[in-house]
Amino acid sequence: MSDTGLHAGLYEYARVLAELVDDVLLEVRAKPQETMSANRTRLGEMLLASTSKHSPDLSARLLAMTLEDIPGFKLGDWREVGRSLLSDTVDHLLVARLERLARALEQEQLDAASRIRD
Amino acid sequence: MESYFHAAIQQLRERARLLMIKIPRDLPREFHLLIQTCGQRIDDIVSRLDYISEDSNMLMEESQSVRLRHLRRIVMDLDTLETIAIVALNRVDPEEDIWLNQLVERITREINYPLLPPVVTSLSSEYFHVYPGLGLLRIPLVEGHFLLHLPDLYHELAHLLLAEQNDPRVKPFQDALMHALDSVVAHFTLAMQKEQRRSGPVRLQFYMEGWLRSWGHYWLVEFMCDAFATCVLGPAFAWAHLHLVAKRGSNTYGVPRGAMSRHPADGARMQVQLHGLRLLGFSSEVGEIERRWDELGAISNAQPDPDYRQCYPDDILKAVAEAALEGVRLIGCRVASAEAASYIGSVMNEAWGVFWRDPIGYSGWEKETVRRLRTEPR
Question: Which residues neighbour A114 within 8 Å (Cβ) at sequence distance 6 or greater?
Answer without folding.
Answer: B262
